[in-house]
Write a structure and sequence with these properties.
With 309 residues, the protein is α/β, with parallel strands linked by helices. The protein is built from 11 helices and 13 strands. The strands form 4 sheets. A 7-stranded mixed beta sheet has the order 3-2-4-5-1-10-11. Strands 6-7 form a two-stranded antiparallel ribbon. A two-stranded parallel ribbon has the order 8-9. Helix 2 links the parallel strand 2 and strand 3. The longest helix has 36 residues.
């Protein structure tokens, strides 16, 4: 599989040009900015930063156009999305109780064997709930795809063919951040996993999340709510073993060993890695071979160097 580079947020201290120079010397660039939703395709800043042309694939707009021509698929898609949101609410409700139980036990003083056993059991309950949720979400996707085969329906297939032609001509693909659910759903509906697997990719923020094995939403101190990290969906699986955490220093209490250890233990064997401004991780042959400005959350509750092959 060609190289993949994942980056942190690009708004304030962009390092996209450095990443592009590492893996693309010449050739066309195309972008996927579906996560920007209504701002999709506004790539003037990207082109200015890179000092080269970038052609956007317009996945967000293409899906809207295709669904407008296929009301049957549009209805099925809305029904599926409503079902996914409902399952996410159920999962969030169960997760709240499981997390509160674990955090309460983790706050207990002492290190008796009995207490440690209860803490492990509480953590295992969270991990079991996470696995259950992933199975449920994957099943919803599988049933929908088997019933509707969205990428093969005429209106969708026409748009997909146009997308694939542009991908085939590109030397590399830039996957921007934004709304990760909007981005991931369009990558899936157009069936682009296999095409992206064959391309050099540079993804940042939510774009990196979409390429990973699990998409995890997180914020230790949100404006409202308890701040428990939750699995949203399976990702495309192009970043084995890595769990990208964009804006980590802003959204996570990285100074709190208990919170750091919980994130690492809960999502093991995935390795949570911070993606902040200036972060860069290069993956070659499914293994990280270069890391800058990033850290790995460890089960001991500290931050360590990002994993390298």
């Amino acid at each position: 599989m060609p190289d993949i580079i994942i980056l942190g947020p690009q708004a304030d201290h962009p390092n996209l040009m450095d990443a592009t120079r590492q893996i693309v010397t010449d050739g066309a660039l195309c972008s996927i900015t579906a996560g920007w939703q209504q701002r999709e395709g506004e790539v003037q800043e990207l082109q200015h930063h890179l000092d080269r042309e970038v052609e956007d694939l317009h996945l967000y707009q293409r899906l809207d156009h295709a669904l407008g021509l296929d009301p049957e698929l549009a209805d099925a898609h809305r029904t599926r999305q409503a079902g996914l949101r409902q399952r996410q609410r159920w999962y969030r409700r169960r997760l709240h109780h499981a997390m509160e139980a674990y955090l309460g036990l983790a706050a207990e003083t002492g290190s008796s064997a009995a207490l440690l056993a209860e803490q492990r059991s509480a953590l295992n309950a969270i991990r079991a709930l996470d696995r259950h949720h992933v199975r449920q979400i994957d099943a919803v996707h599988a049933v929908f795809n088997a019933r509707w085969r969205p990428a093969h329906r005429p209106a969708m297939a026409e748009q997909r063919d146009a997308i694939v032609r542009r991908l085939d001509a590109a030397a590399a693909v830039l996957v921007a951040g934004g709304h990760v659910a909007a981005l991931l759903s369009r990558l899936r509906l157009f069936g682009l996993e296999s095409e992206l697997r064959e391309k050099r990719l540079i993804a940042w923020s939510a774009g990196a999340m979409a390429l990973s094995e699990r998409v995890v939403l997180f914020h230790d101190s949100p404006p409202q709510g308890p701040g428990h990290a939750e699995i949203l969906d399976s990702g495309l699986g192009l970043l084995p073993r890595l769990l990208p955490l964009p804006h980590a220093r802003e959204r996570l209490r990285l100074h709190d060993p208990r919170r750091v250890a919980l994130m690492a233990r809960r999502f093991n064997p995935l390795q949570p890695v911070t993606l902040d401004a200036g972060s860069l991780i290069r993956v070659t042959g499914h293994k990280p071979v270069m890391a800058q400005g990033t850290a790995r959350l460890t089960a001991r509750g500290n931050l360590a160097g990002a994993p390298l092959a």
